Amino acid sequence: MTTFDGAESERKTSSLFRHLPVLRKGIGLVLLAVLAFAFLIPILWMTVMSFQEGGKMFDLRTEWIPAVWHIENYPNALSRAPFVQYFINSGIVSVTVMAGNVVFCTLAGYGLAKFHFRGSGLVLLLILSTLMLPLEVTLVPTFLIVHKFEWMNTYQGIVAPLLIDAFGVFLMRQSIISIPSDYIEAARIDGAGELRILLQIIVPQCLPALSVLAIFSFRDSWDQFLWPLTVVSIDSLRTYPLGLVQFGEEYGNPATEQMAIAVLATLPVFLLFMILQRSINRGFGLSGLK
Amino acid sequence: MVELTSGEPYQHGSLSGPPPVVRRFWQIHHRQRIRLWGIGFVLPTLLFFAVFKYGPMLWAIELSFNSYDMVSVPHFVGLDNYRELASNPIFRETLINTFVYIAGSTALTTIIGLALALAINTGIPGARHCMTAMFLTNLMPIIAVCLVWRFLLHPYGLVNQILQPLGFGRIDWLTSSATAMPAIIMVTVWRFAPYFMVIFLAALLALPQDYYEAAELDGAGAVRRFVHITLPLLMPTVFFVVVVSALLCARIFLMPYLITGGGPGNATRVLSMLIYETGFSYFKMGQAAAISVVLFSIMMAFTALQIRLFARSEQVYM
């Protein structure tokens, strides 16, 4: 940087003002930390309450550090209803949906980004238009279709309508479009097959976008409530959100044990996020952030 | 193009270049084969959407002109389902609630998301960790979010405990019709604002820095830099966030369903809840399909906007 008059005058200012940027950053950090903490309060509250004594949840003053840590809330909650089975069901559904999205969104995204066939623009438009057709809108006919397939009360019935999401296709297309086409052409000249090009050239370069896709498709299917509610009526196929709501409605189940299940349900998503975090940040375009 | 000097017809091999490929009629050209691969990659997704998106929507439109209870055969009733909706005060209230919810949540999540992004983007060390912490609200299972907030918004819950020293009385958040919808919107903002913060942050990081250097040399203050540089450059992202947020909010189901159950009265009942109840509690499939068509029309308006924006932007969003 060239020297300007500003630099001259800055040198004359007192020592307090010379440290102003540092001071400002310090105050800024404290304010930001308080803000982030405020956002975390409900999550902390949930965690603390999952270790509290039954009645303490409705205290006039929240007891943030339990006098006694009731770790037994967890095994108690798990034994009051078949939550282990519910979690397994949710896991099967979520992992399948995540895998389906990763595979099919990558394929479709690649097809739309790097192949120019007649009508490819229209196809992109058609795919994006399904964003206005979430399950909440098509609930009744989707139910009737799954009913026709005789998939009521089956895993494929829960999984099928969730298997591909247009957002994922768009995300993958946008990520793949920035990969230079020369790589693909060079590989073709070397005699690589189309699937090999996809797996060895395209996929390694869009891992950040794939991580974003993975965490969101996992979260969305792990969160799914309305569809299993519609399609599942037998206990052994319930996913944990259905089980948890019913658990809350049954008389006499301590609210603290609901929180214990809620904490257990939160862990897999947070864990997956921690594993993929660096990649997700890059996928979001945040790698430049300090 | 090859220009022939003589009047003789062009012949393979007469010019230097790749040797001619003799093709039988069933063999397709190399370029065409690649194109077929492309179609093959997209086809599973298109077929899937045909069965689980376009098909159901067409069926919903057809069903909305019929009366069907899943037991007897559907019979055509013309516009009766829509007429019934138009004269149904609960439907009208629900429609208004949905719009109030979309407008309130979208405005607040956009503004707060942007404010959070600006706060993170100040270059403060450790800001990234604050961002990660806030983003956790977006990853927590929505069912846990609803259960926790139902307790936090209890008359003796934590929200009132925090507000009371500030001079507020005890607010019956979820049982008074004046505060139930604001309470749901508050939970929505807590859930979604950090997500849009991330999108705004990505856009802020991608802004060209030389504008700011030039403005600083010209002596523009932080406020003027924001109004005259950041905001205009960020406008496409703002539009994007508004549309995505509106689409997310239009389909909201679980928050009102679990936190207030649509009450008190119908104060927080939204269209998706009405679809579920009409279809699966009262088994009026035709009527439910008609509500679906209404919700679809609302979302179509937002999506038309969004596709126009998508077509313009080349940035990666999710």
Number of helical segments of chain A? Answer: 15
The proportion of strand residues of chain B reads: under 5%
Shape of chain A: flat
Q: Which band does the percent of strand residues of chain A land in?
A: under 5%
Written overview of the protein:
The complex is a heterodimer of chains A (290) and B (318). Chain A is an all-alpha fold and 290 residues long. Helix content of chain A is 71%, strand content 0%. Chain A is built from 15 helices and no strands. In chain A, helix 5 packs antiparallel against helix 12, helix 12 packs antiparallel against helix 15 and helix 14 packs antiparallel against helix 15. The radius of gyration of chain A is 26 Å and the shape is flat. Chain B is an all-alpha fold and 318 residues long. Helices cover 66% and strands 1% of the residues of chain B. Chain B has a two-stranded antiparallel sheet with strand order 1-2. In chain B, strand 1 and strand 2 form a beta hairpin. In chain B, helix 7 packs across helix 9. The radius of gyration of chain B is 28 Å and the shape is flat. The two termini of chain B are 44 Å apart. The N terminus and C terminus of chain B are likely disordered. At the A-B interface, helix 3, helix 5, helix 6, helix 7 and helix 9 of A face helix 1, helix 3, helix 4, helix 5 and helix 7 of B.
